[in-house]
Amino acid sequence: MPEPVLRIQALSKNFGGLKAVREVCLDLHLSELHAVIGPNGAGKSTLINVISGELHPSGGSIRYEGREIAGFPADRIARLGIVRSYQKVNVFPWFTALENCRLAAQSRLKSSMRFFRPARKYAEVNDAAERALALTGLAPRAGSFASALSHGEQRQLEIAMTVATSPRVLLLDEPLAGMGAEESLQLLALISRLSADHAILLVEHDMDAVFSVARVLTVMVNGRVLESGPPEVVRRSHAVQEAYLGKEEPAP
Amino acid sequence: MHSYRLPVKLFLLLSLAALILFPSVSSKFYLQLFSKIMILAILAMSLDLLAGFTGLISLGHAAFFGLGAYTLLLMSPEYAAASLWLSLPAAMTVAALAALVIGVLVLRSSGVYFIMVTLAFGQMFFYYVTGARRFGGSDGAYIYFKPDATLAGWAPIQLSNNLHFYYFVLALMVAVYLLLRIVIDSPFGHVICGIRVNENRMRSLGFPTFRYKLVAFMIAGALAGLAGYLDAAQYGFVSPELFGWRESGIVLMMVILGGMGTLYGPILGAFALALLQEFFADHTKHWLLPMGLFIILAVLVLPRGISGVLERLVVWGWNLGARRA
Questions:
Q1: For residues A168 and A81, is the Cβ–Cβ distance under 8 A?
Q2: Distance (Å) from the alpha carbon of A144 to chain B's nearest alpha carbon
Q3: Among the residues of A13-150, which ranges form H helices?
Q4: Cβ contact (<8 Å) for B188 and A74?
Q5: pTM of the complete model
Q6: A74 near B CB under 8 A
Q7: From A54, A94, A104, residue closest to B205, measured CB to CB
Q8: Which residue range(s) make up the domain with B74?
Q9: Which of A146, B1, B21, B151 has the highest local Cβ count within 10 Å?
Q10: Which of B198, B200, B206 lies closest to A165 in CB terms?
Q11: CA atoms of A175 and A184, how far apart (whole Å)
């Protein structure tokens, strides 16, 4: 087994007395789609918030390419190559789809403290933005304002923006939330494609979707990892069936 | 979407032509009034960079205006003129450095707290200068000689000449507008616009947002210092009022009335507010009452300011034209 890109060990996050994430361990490898599932309040989103630096961990370690990054500020973690998407659509409504991606790609410039040349004339930024749009299938909508896109397209744009930053690790927080069946399938296909050359941590509610695409599954309950492994193993786990899938469901 | 920009551009160019020709028909009184308004327009544009583009509503922006004015006072010898070429950059530098220090402290807060902290800083300057005897205290102080624009024996303009001063201010107003337009179009400008909409998202994309807000604060401070310097140079008089929250409030009103985040809106707002004040003051000594009513009404019926009306008119005209064609 090669070295993991991201190794999380005994990661915890407390809010006062509430232990939202308890001693979570997981490894993320390149070209691997790792899904985290669990009931509401299991600490999945908190886990993403802690890895991405938006929340300060209460304990534990996050190693990225062999380097400790726990406690780094969010912008620094993003520049290192760990970029997240949001459960709530979080695009810039009055920018076009292309401008949204361009802004994201601009974060890869050494610095955006550039005051005179128009932003649209930076070729490397444009290229990255257009690549991200093409990859996510949004190229025909490049000139549309983000606010004019459908919900599904906004979700695609959300992912296109993360891709435009040329990340190594993608943290996707419920990317399928609120999407129709057909759109969901398309987006899952996109996520599968992206997993070829990224390490992806996918937090998702939709069980069928997760079982169909993930290489590794981690089940969280009450902030703790209940089970982790390939989907077939997790599906057969008694602990998971009792805690999450429901007792009645017979093992396939 | 970009098509409506053309008529607005045309309108702005026509207005500029009018301002260039204005001195040939104007009395001395209006020449001075318009110079004063254009100085306020520079101040309003600098605040728009913060309020309209970065999303930082400052109620202490006059602090930098005052600093620019008092820098000219301190650099003017009592019986001679200060050099324009030294004192003007100095005023902007002082204001920018003050913005750096204040910015580091206030930019950690946001929303209502940011408004309160900037207000407090402005008032701190106000009370300090009011109590400082050597700056003239609460009475203010006179600058007896206009800054001297002589450079190596060559004097392109005489600031003591009203007409020269008018064109000098007009040129600076246009320069500030063009400069800010370029900055807003640059990568830096896109970052601050992103921060206004969603600072968290900008951070999670990899932008250290604090730094960008700080630089925006410094640019705005330096330009406000420029405006303050011009104000002191025009009247040859400075007073603590320049720092006060009243001044900050009036400029913010100009920005809101003109239309936040448009850059040309604040110029229109400065002209509208100042000319209206002049008009009401001519007709009644209770001019503050109609003025206040007007502003309430304007905010109620023109949520996007004068520039919003202008842009809607253009869109409307466009549609009308399209229907005929």
A1: yes
A2: 10
A3: 44-51, 74-80, 97-106, 123-135
A4: no
A5: 0.93
A6: yes
A7: A104
A8: 29-269
A9: A146
A10: B206
A11: 9
Chain B neighbors of A116, CB-CB under 8 A = 182-183, 186
Question: A-B interface: how many C-beta pairs under 8 angstroms?
Answer: 89
CB contact under 8 A, A94 and B188: no
Please give the Cα distance from B247 to A81 (Å, whole number). 46
**Contact (CB, 8 A) for A182 and A150:** no
**Which of these, B46, B57, B177, B37, lies nearest to B111 by C-alpha position?**
B57
Q: What is the pLDDT of residues B241-296, one digit of tens each?
A: 999 999 999 999 999 999 999 999 999 999 999 999 999 988 888 888 888 898 88
CB < 8 Å to A119, chain B: 185-187, 189-190
- Residue B134 resides in a domain: yes
Q: Which of A74, A103, A122 sits opposite B203 (nearest CB)?
A: A74
Task: Report CA-CA distances (Å) from B274 to A102, B271, B279, B280.
Answer: 40, 5, 9, 10
Give the integer Cα–Cα distance in Å for B219 and B57: 15
CA distances from B281 to B273, B276, B278, B291 (A): 12, 8, 5, 9
Number of folded domains in chain B? 1
Could you state, in chain order, the average pLDDT of each consecutive group of 10 residues for chain A (252 residues)?
Answer: 89 93 95 91 93 96 95 96 92 94 96 94 96 95 95 93 96 90 90 94 86 91 91 86 62 51
Domain-located, residue B14: no
Decide if B277 is inside a domain: no
Which of B99, B112, B61, B88 is closest to B169 using CA atoms?
A: B88
Instruction: Give the residue numbers in B contacting A (CB under 8 Å), as ranges.
Output: 1, 182-183, 185-191, 194, 197-198, 200-201, 203-209, 211-212, 215
Least CB-CB distance to B203: which of A75, A94, A115?
A75
How far is the C-alpha of A64 from the C-alpha of A45, rounded, in Å?
Answer: 19
Q: Check: CB of residue B222 under 8 Å from CB of residue B96.
A: yes
A122 vs A112: CA distance, rounded Å: 11
Residue of chain A with shortest Cα separation from B203: A75
In-domain check, residue B144: yes
